[in-house]
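REVIEWER CHECKLIST
Item 1: Sequence provided? yes
Item 2: Single chain? yes
Item 3: Sequence as submitted:
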Amino acid sequence: MDTFTHISQPLHGLFISPRDNLLMRCDLHVHTKASGMCNTAFVRNFCRESYNDAEAVYDRCKRLGMSVVTVTDHDSIDAAEFLRDRPDFFLSEEVTCSLPSGTELHLGVYGITERDHIEIQKRRADFISLLMYLTERKIFYSVNHVFSGLTGRRKLEDFEWFASYALALETRNGQMWFRANEEAERLALSYGKIGIAGSDSHTLAGIARTYTEVPGARTVEEFFAGLRARRGRIRGDHGSLAKITADVFRITGSLFQEKPWTIAMSPLAVLLPAVTVGHWFNEIRFCKIWAKKVNASETAPRLLWDLDANFREA
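Item 4: Structure as written out by the authors:
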């Protein structure tokens, strides 16, 4: 790995307790201010995805027993500026990429370098090129919130790409309906994929409440080697309507603090529960529709020459 991971094995032992050496834990889906602005219409002009400070995220992860810490901001590694000196921090991001079907996908990529980030961002509109780069660089990656409508529409052929090329699936997301997580776990088992877990928390309250652990790992390298060897364990909370609603109010409070002029819109806060209820039931509907379609289909692997009839001749 690089300077974002560990300086040396002896020094690593000073920062990771014997207990954590037995069960190395990491929340593999965490957001900070570096995730940018909300993608929801209207509020995207003034409201952030998250108001978490990177240092506060790190401190909370350590307080709640995470052995190593990463941050997975949307297409950004800016939070690393505040954490690069921590020997138990490693660099990651959540990449917004385009599938061959034209749909969008969030891909978690872990243990990267600054150079990797640049190359990944160049390739995120070309899924095949991105996969080739991640594979060549031996970068661990996962398809996040598989049964969520957060990235928009989905097509059945997307799941064929998951079956063929996904290294891991996020089988427990701390913001997702428990049945959506169960369907993701079932899919991972069906496709023979590695399962991982993360809080996907945009506020401090949920961070490190959902996480992945690997027995016997002592370094970040050993953590991901353990995941590849299928020794990882999924731990922690699922999402709920109450959790989502509380987080939306927390984000709204942080917005008022950062931009006091938005307090003029505070009467609209009474509508927030209705917004989160609508979101929650839309997520349930999305999950049920796509779980039914995927379960009823015989997913066939996608082959590279499906994209280009001349591929075999090349």
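Item 5: Key structural point noted by reviewer: Confidence is low (pLDDT under 50) at residues 1-9, 309-314.
Item 6: Recommendation: ____
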